[in-house]
Amino acid sequence: MTDNPLYHLDEFPRFDAIRPEHGVPAVRQRIAEAEQTVSAIETACPATWDGRIRALHNATEPVWRAWGIIQHLISVSNSTDWRTVEETLQPEVIVFAMRVVQSRPLYDALQALRDSSEYSGFDSGRKRVVDKSLRAARDSGVGLEGEDKTAFNAIVNELSALSMKFSNNVLDATKAFSLMLHERNEVAGLPPTLLEGCAQAAQTSGEAAATAEKGPWRITLEHAVYGPFMQYAERRDLREKLYRANIIRASDGTTDNTPLVERILELRRKMSQMLGYDNYAQLSLSAKMAGKPEAVYAMIDQIGEVALPKAKKDLADLQAFAESHGFSKGPLMPWDLAYWARLQVETLFGYSPEALRPYFPLEHVLNGLFDLVSKLTGVRFVAADGAAPTWHPDVRFFRVTDDADTTLAWFYLDPYSRPETKRGGAWMNEFQTRERCPDGSLKRPVALMVCNQAVPAGGKPSCMTPGEISTLFHEFGHALQHMLTEIDIPEASGINNIEWDAVEVASQFLENWCLQPDVLRALAHHVETGETLDDDMLGRIHASNTHHAALQTIRQLRFANVDLDLHTKYPSPEFPTIADAERQSAERFAVIAPLPEDRFLCSFAHIFAGGYSAGYYSYMWADVLAADVFAMFEEQGLDNVAEVQRIGRRYTETILAQGGAMHPMDVFKAFRGREPDVHALLKQKGLLEN
Ligand code: ZN
């Protein structure tokens, strides 16, 4: 074990040395050591912060750090070897996690701490850690005995294996489909970046001579290909083909998720009932800001009421637009929407997101993002490439400092797409959270951000569309909340201990900034000419931001609603089958009825393999809060530098600094001075006149 880099983890993991063969021995050894310490804590049963909370953290943290790095590598350097490591370790990790969270002596010690005089002297952060740990223990079955406990743990294990299988099925089904296009007319309309990427994909699958100009082009269901293809491909038949392949992804053959969906819902139902809840949504929501399914349904109704009529009007306008531009095939079909919406934006606002790409080289966007955040928070970002090993040569490394050049935090940025080994999409995570050690020393936060930007090709840097810039801002918003925390206890510092439906506030708040004309102007720097964008264009980009916001909103409401229905009311006379739940949400929120063969639940990894089960609504919930936070800046004027700085510091000191140490409603009120108001979001999306 002496030379296992996954066992010996310093401030920065040695990614240059960590290999799959280190995974199993490192985690097993860490678990064995933790078991011993945990047993010792159980025997002593100390009802104090240091004896119970801190000691348990110190005992278990090495396990979670090593396991977290393995999961990270599976996301960014996927291989059969790493998958085998994960499959081998996952059951053992779960047994360990359950053993800790279900430990009766640890629970009793926690309860005694809760009733002690020490507790009454705690600040809100420590109180929350104790209270939430008690609830987590109860919701993890600490109160169950004998056969019940065995059955409960079997459910937890099976659920975890099912979610891993679900996710791998989606990945494999996505990889299994491709269209190799050979004729120029088949790719008519596609932007150069996409052609470049698809030609490269063709090369790696045997078409060694493929070029962006002459093809062939390999079209896949990867998000970064599917999205632009649906927006730009002129060949309606090919859009239809791709659309149909996408909606049945992972719904038959060896990657069929249909039985998994059924089983996952059944197990979640059983598990919540064993814990005394009526349904799984109650269990999920008891630990969230919303608290109860009713609060979420109320939000869905409130926003839906405003968005639905507007969405229907948006669709009618789009139909009229398409017809006036030569479309004569009857009502628009689902594979027409993105294409005609993009053309409509180009016509109404006079630009195409793809045509803007050369204005936004990643490096320049990054610098503009740093400048904006420095203005808001007062911190600075310094390139520190080489100061820590990375998992891929393209990964960047940065240091976050204050005015006096004191290091506050570090972060990695993994910018480019690697479809063979890297998960699609963008995300933020952490390797280290802030912690004040007993000797007074400070462990500083280490964050990571992953994007899937186009790989720089032909000597040109990677350039971004406004949508991709939003994604980058989003993830950076998360990373900031992790890095600028001022909480010293690791259980509540950074993004830890924040209610799931409040976590997206920091990310969506930052996203709100990026399409503001002044911000966008600073991000723009044409890759060849160095030009920025003029005021007219900036104004049009900003105005286009609310275009079709109602359609996007009801799409989110549809997903949130079906997720909640499946976890509250299925099965019932109202929803005898999963398909009924799907159909009813679609009838209410889809302006174009889904095709009968639509099986989107089979690839809805958010709720079946991610953490969003009975929690998909969280995006909208947090959006309400984030829009209201941003409105405070707007009320003073975004060009009022002094006010932006003043409110920015207040944001930094409340939402970013306090994070999980206060209830999200209290953090919000500390910033805003009142409770959140949904009107800020409706206004921001252009759903209300004023
Ligand atoms: Zn997010």
Structure description:
With 690 residues, the protein is an alpha+beta fold. Among the domains are: 20-143, Glutathione S-transferase Yfyf (Class Pi), Chain A, domain 2 (Up-down Bundle), CATH 1.20.1050; 177-249, no CATH class; 357-546, Orthogonal Bundle (Neurolysin, domain 3), CATH 1.10.1370.40. The protein has helices at residues 20-44, 49-76, 80-101, 104-114, 117-120, 124-139, 146-176, 192-204, 223-232, 236-247, 258-274, 280-286, 293-324, 334-349, 353-356, 362-377, 466-483, 504-514, 517-523, 535-544, 549-568, 578-589, 605-608, 618-636, 641-658, 664-672, 679-684; strands spanning 178-181, 217-220, 380-383, 396-401, 407-416, 427-432, 435-436, 442-443, 446-453. The strands form three sheets. Strands 3-4-5-9-6 form a five-stranded mixed β-sheet, with helices on both faces. Strands 1-2 form a two-stranded antiparallel sheet. It has a two-stranded antiparallel ribbon with strand order 7-8. Helix 11 packs across helix 12 (280-286) and helix 24 runs antiparallel to helix 25. The longest helix has 32 residues, at 293-324. The radius of gyration is 25 Å and the shape is globular. The model has no long low-confidence stretch (mean pLDDT 95). Residues 474, 478, 504, 507 line the site of zinc ion. The site of zinc ion has 4 residues, from helix 17 and helix 18.
